[in-house]
Design goal:
Blueprint (H helix, E strand, L loop, with lengths): L1 H4 L14 H27 L3 H5 L5 H37 L10 E12 L1 H12 L4 E7 L10 E2 L1 E2 L10 E6 L3 H5 L3 E4 L11 E5 H8 L8 E4 L5 E9 L15 E5 L12 E10 L8 H11 L3 E8 H7 L2 H35 L1 H9 L4 H31 L14 H27 L3 H7 L1
Length: 451
């Protein structure tokens, strides 16, 4: 479990040494549970009177009602666990299957800082050396990786209009970044080497839809609101890509500005941090980590590589809670099904043992195998049905308390109720198979002769 949730850049270290306290606690818990659940049957057995036992023992009907009641409770609990597990597994599946708008495969992010701010030409020089590294397909520059948790927001306005209430994200990227990320270019062009912020921009579909009503925005202008308005021309339209780390929220309107930035007088503005986005040729991107680190260090001694992460690792880190809940839910579902199966088998096998004489008499007077099977499983089937119905009610009630953790699943979805029912039915059939076969194979002659 720890390996599934442990981020490599911030590993959790747990002390898992086994000492006498762990052993004593485990033994005490084991014996305590054994005593707790074994005490009632032991007292019941020790309280049997010899005369009553010789006359036929205790009342089998009361014993049967107790066992069937416990089976119903066990099935209800199992249904509850399976239903909630289905919600968590469905949530993880929906979130993991959500398109981010870019291809994370074979993508490395080299987050780099410098001792002193460096001009865009220095950053591009390092990028050129990275492109020459064997095994590298493409290299581009941005400020921070997509979905890294960092973002820069602001507001925009149409020329001459008041600032819009539309929240907009801004991200500086170099020429070739859109193609490196494999974000579809829907119209216009990518950035060129001579482009500089804040003169031109690329916008995503969400920006065009909400600010321009879905009309093609290429060639149009907008103003970045602030203390001083700056006119920006849209030169390209790209598909929506997720830049923020909130995977449950829709993609925000985004403006991509050139990596090269100039001031009002046209003078270039240096940067002290950026991220090299590297798409590799081979499937194992991390195999190039050492070579890429050396290239950055040798090309510009003042450049320091702070972090090297795959885009897949960054994207999956935001599903940590959902992945853990799905993992635990699947584990406890298997345990609950196993316990339900063992309980059903025990009750049915015990019932067949104590009804051997009755079964023999029924078969001697003409009962068929199907009649015997229905007789053996009838009361247990009713208990399983009652438990499943109660478990469904408990599951729907309990699910409302975890509704804030869910995504893309509906509590009232019939499939979420049918799946636990089908699992319990399958386990019940497997558990009943051996006791039913034993019952229908009872030899009436041998049974009556033994009696």
């Amino acid at each position: 479990m720890l390996s599934r949730i442990n981020p490599p850049d911030d590993p959790a270290r747990l002390s898992l040494t086994v000492d006498w306290r762990v052993v004593v606690f485990s033994l005490a818990l084991t014996f305590g549970i054994t005593l707790l659940f074994g005490l009632a049957p032991a007292l019941r057995a020790s309280g049997i009177k010899p005369l009553a036992a010789l006359k036929g023992g205790d009342d089998p009907h009361s014993r049967g009602r107790l066992m069937h009641g416990l089976i119903a409770v066990q099935v209800a609990f199992c249904f509850l666990v399976l239903f909630v597990a289905g919600l968590f597994l469905g949530t993880f599946d929906r979130l993991a299957g959500q398109p981010n708008g870019f291809s994370a495969e074979r993508l490395l992010n080299l987050e780099t800082t410098t001792q002193r701010p460096q001009p865009a030409a220095a950053w591009e020089d390092v990028a050129e050396h990275l492109r020459a590294t064997p095994g590298v397909e493409r290299v581009a520059l941005t400020i921070w990786p997509m979905m890294s948790g960092e973002a820069s927001g602001g507001s925009v306005a149409l020329p001459g209009a008041a600032p819009s209430a539309l929240p907009v994200d801004f991200l500086n990227v170099s020429p070739g970044w859109v193609e490196t990320m494999k974000i579809p270019l829907l119209g216009g062009r990518e950035f060129r080497g001579e482009d500089a912020a804040p003169g031109v921009a690329l916008v995503n579909r969400a920006f065009a839809k909400q600010l321009f009503g879905g009309v093609d925005p290429v060639g149009k202008w907008f103003e970045r609101a602030g203390t001083q308005r700056v006119r920006v021309q849209i030169v390209g339209l790209v598909a929506d890509a997720r830049s923020r780390d909130n995977v449950r929220a829709p993609v925000r309107p985004t403006v991509y500005l050139p990596f090269r930035v100039t001031d009002a007088a046209g003078a270039p503005q240096p940067r002290s941090r950026a991220t090299f986005v590297v798409r590799t040729i081979g499937p194992d991107s991390l195999a190039l980590a050492g070579a890429l680190r050396d290239t950055v260090a040798h090309t510009r001694p003042g450049f320091h590589l702070n972090s090297l992460r795959t885009q897949t690792e960054i994207s999956q880190a935001h599903l940590l809670r959902e992945r853990l809940l799905a993992l635990l839910a699947a584990f406890f579902s298997v345990v609950a099904l196993a316990l339900a199966g063992v309980g059903l088998y025990g009750v049915l096998d015990y019932s067949v043992q104590h009804r051997t004489r009755e079964i023999g008499i029924r078969m001697a007077i003409g009962a068929r195998g199907g009649d015997i099977a229905r007789s053996v499983t009838g009361s247990v089937s009713a208990a399983v049905t009652c438990g499943a119905v109660a478990g469904a009610g408990l599951g729907v009630a309990a699910a409302r308390s975890v509704e804030s953790l869910l995504f893309g699943v509906r509590i009232a979805d019939p499939r979420l109720l049918l799946a636990p029912a089908a699992c319990i039915l399958a386990v019940a059939l497997v558990a009943a198979l051996r006791p039913v076969l034993r019952a229908v194979r009872v030899d009436p002659a041998n049974t009556l002769r033994a009696e």
